[in-house]
Amino acid sequence: MTGRILIVDSVPTNRIILRVKLSAAYYEVIQADSGAAALAMLRRTAPDLVITATDLPDMTGRALCAAIHDRKAGLRIPVVILHREDDPGERLASLAAGADDVLTCPVNDLVMLARLRSLLRARDAEAELQLRDDTRRALGLAEQGAEFVAPGLVRLVSPPRLTETRALQDGLEARISDRVEVVDPDDALRERTRAPDVVIVAEPPGSTGQALSLLPQLRASRGTRHSALIYIAQPHQQREAASALDMGANDLLCSGLDLDELAIRLRKQIDRKRTNDRLRSNMQDGLRAAVCDPLTGLYNRRYAVPHVSRLADRAARQKRPYALLLADLDFFKQVNDDHGHAAGDAVLVTLAQRLKDNLRAADLISRWGGEEFLVAMPDADSDAAKRTADRLCRIMARQPVTLPDGNRITVTLSIGVAIGKPAQENGPLDLIARADEALYAAKHKGRNTVVMADTVRLIGAPKPTHSAISDITDTTTPRRAGLT
């Protein structure tokens, strides 16, 4: 499944039609027929997104949206309000009340599914940043943020000579306190002194979607990589509108320009971008010195333990599995003995880089101790974790490591894998210990292999004498002398 979506509508036929469409797109769908039922379901389950009708038996869709956002526990859940007819005033009221998006019947399926994918991607990215920020706070590294907030910078990509461009710029400047600058499409990718908070890419009347090609370039550009992107399509450009969201746009006006709606969406995107910037800055600056390994640049054990605990808590709330991979370099002591410690450091740095290059951004990679590395993978079941571990072993075995003296040597990995399941009573530290036992079994099996924790049996060899979790500050003591 690609996500869990809660549909709230008092009309069974409406729920059924929407459920069929979403199920065909591989979403897990749950349903409620009233606002009270929806709020009760939120306490029992953990939906990734809510789609609600604007009129419910016991409250309005806007009231339900406010109640969802007022919840103190858990991550922020995106809410989409479904209107029965296109009423600009109602649409603006819903957006102003906190709805992340508004859809109007009859719903264009392409645009709806693209909007859902975009909202879920944004939620996952924010959740990962928030998880790391929570870990930082748990370590006592939180600091009070600055009170002063400078005006944002909005960059409008549209030919300056057009009358529509001037009207759009003037209309925005009258509605928002942020600075608005106009950039010609041919000049949109040039780096400037200040990165914009939001980039607006507008299709002029009569356009055939030429501006669409700018979106992936803006998303890939260093200067606009973290900027919010808003795409304005004309009413006849529904296919282009859907494509825009999949090509990197954060938000969309798919029925042409509405200055009041654009102003509301701009404020939301600027606020969201500032929150993400703050979380990203906290993570980079507040943690680096205290919880990063100075050699590899990866997180160390001090960071990994509370992070895995919070990952386990989130997995339990969302009723989804997660995976822990404990990887160890084979015969690492021999590398140091034969080639020197500088060569050993080069091998560790190379492995760290290969792990970063071949794992997801949401996966935590940490140097667990000596030549051991811990990988925590959210939303990963046994099959996905096994495939990932096998791939990492192949990559390391097939690509020799270049040493400081120019020589090249082949170094292999052994990996133990343990899966955390929602109904599992054992805590994350027990899961790390199980991954450690699986790693030991992989060493005993012959190295350069992967062993799943649930397949480990007594193998008649002595147990390791040093617990995987006994001292979270020790990141240098080699383990399992003679079996590395």
UniProtKB/TrEMBL annotation:
E.C. number: 2.7.7.65
Gene3D superfamilies: 3.30.70.270, 3.40.50.2300
UniProt domain Response regulatory: residue ranges: 4-120
Coiled-coil residue windows: none
Pfam families according to UniProt: GGDEF (PF00990), Response_reg (PF00072)
Residue stretches making up the GGDEF domain: 320-455
Top enzyme category: transferase
Catalysis: reaction(s): 2 GTP = 3',3'-c-di-GMP + 2 diphosphate
Organism domain of life: Bacteria
GO BP term (any one): phosphorelay signal transduction system
SMART domains: GGDEF (SM00267), REC (SM00448)
First and last residue of the signal peptide: none
Gene Ontology molecular function: diguanylate cyclase activity
PANTHER family: DIGUANYLATE CYCLASE DGCM-RELATED (PTHR45138:SF9), REGULATORY COMPONENTS OF SENSORY TRANSDUCTION SYSTEM (PTHR45138)
Protein name: diguanylate cyclase
Organism listed in the record: Antarctobacter heliothermus
Name of the gene: pleD
